[in-house]
Amino acid sequence: MAGFRDEDKRHFPLQDIKSVVELFRSQLSCSVEPNLALLSVTLGYIENVLTNNRALNKVDSGANLEPIFPVVELAPVEALYHKFVCQIKGSVDLSLFTHGVATRDLVKKVSDVIWSSLSRSYHTDRAHLQSLYSYLTGNRLDCFGVAFAVVAACQVLGYKDVHLALSEDHAWVTFGDKGAETAEVTWHGKGNEDKRGQPISVGVAEKSWLYLYGFPVQCTRSMEVAAMVSAINPSIDSHTDSIEMASLQQELLWLLYEMGHLRKYPMALGNLADLEEIDPTPDKPPPIQLFHEGIHAGKVYYNNQHVYPYTYLGGHYYRRGQFKDALHCWAQAANVIRSYNYNREDEEIYKEFLEIAHELIPNMLKSVSLSTLQSPALSPASSTDDSSEKSNGRSTPVAVPLSPLLNDPECFAYLLQLYDGICQWEEGSSTPVLHIGWAKHIVQSINSFSPQVRSKLNILLIGDQGEVLKDEEEEEEEGEKDKDKEESKTEEKEEPKKGRGRGSKGSRAIAKGKGEKN
Ligand SMILES: CC1(C)CN=C(N2CCN(c3ncnc4sc(CCF)cc34)CC2)S1
Known about the structure:
With about 525 residues, the chain is of the alpha+beta class. It has helices at about 5-10, 15-30, 35-50, 75-90, 105-115, 130-140, 145-155, 200-205, 220-230, 245-260, 265-280, 285-300, 310-320, 325-335, 345-375, 385-390, 410-425, 435-450, 450-455, 470-490, and strands at about 60, 65, 165, 170-175, 180-185, 215-220, 235, 240, 455-460, 470, 510-515. Ligand 59X binds near residues 267, 271, 308, 311 and 315.
């Protein structure tokens, strides 16, 4: 694996965002695959300068201290790259391994080399530990960074078959013919024994979200570049982001988007959409389109087993006050999680649903109730008919109608689908999901809706082919008829009830407001 080629060197010294984008463009455009180690060192170097809140790299522009983009010389980047190459080639005796595709022993050996060179103790969940710059200058990597470093090291050793596999909260590698083999190369979460060297099969069999039912993002080299760009962390501290670093990430994600490398990467599309929501780039597709492209990718390439595309969009609608659309997204997210069994390593997605149910939805219900109370039509001071004021000197209490959201049966149906999905997630799981705190919020949320709406609900039974099996009224009418027939009917053996959950032919219920169009 050679270092920077001449056409790459001409971009140095990097002076601004544009020069970094052009370096990435030339690395991604040429016939030889992009050099993961070189690009990761370059990004890590820039991130380190722009997010270290040392005053020295800031120019006092009067109003506030503006960090200036660092000048990145070729020499220090190439020096760090060669340090990586020497360490990897010096630790792996390739004569012990077959040429061509990698073996499990090779992958495990590379993982051991990275693992054993990490510093003894450091906080692994800190920021800026994702790049090879962090590894080479501080011997520290987070769990994603270890997996990425293993893939970059295998690239240095000449193995083109070793690739990064990404779930929504874990990373591992694929290798061998057609990338058919899998191996753990890093740890996951806290207090879990690492399974490095083992294939992924058990996690998939357990139906845990962490392994996405065997539908992870299988990266190409360009998607591994997208992963390192997605992993950029612009935060200087918990309250401040480096504008330059966020802007660099945004422009690199647009480069990758335009080259088609985000097409099968829902989370990177979500990252770009979030950045665009904060600071829109002129003449680019709007965030809403990117979020929907992420959902579409999840459906087309990953059997709709990914949850984050729906919670990315749900968060976007929530922040814009489009609460019905947010509820619909969260119901669809729950519809994905229902097919999994909860496992102790799935805490991240548990926390996601907990925040939706215990913070976002209560805040939403509170805010729509408050806005109704404060709406001009209702506040006595501004009411047109102030006769009540004159007659008894006190305004007569005005019956406060519930906000449209709380009168909308579809919103109520989405709320029920959200909770039903979480309940089904728990069914058959080794670890419980719900506790009494959930019940409190479920009752509070359901009670926020008007009694009328809650009575208007109509459950349509939809078969696996999408046909309407029957709705409640039909069911009631049939119930009447059945009673009449019961006497005459001889006992017949009932069809065994079809199971529920993934892959079963069981019907599913769709809750709609009465009289809704189908
Ligand atoms: C809807 C959300 C809560 C917003 N941000 C989210 N994420 C931020 C970005 N994330 C990611 N973005 C790109 N690629 C990856 S690979 C991976 C698993 C560890 F390797 C995580 C992740 C994780 C999820 S999900």
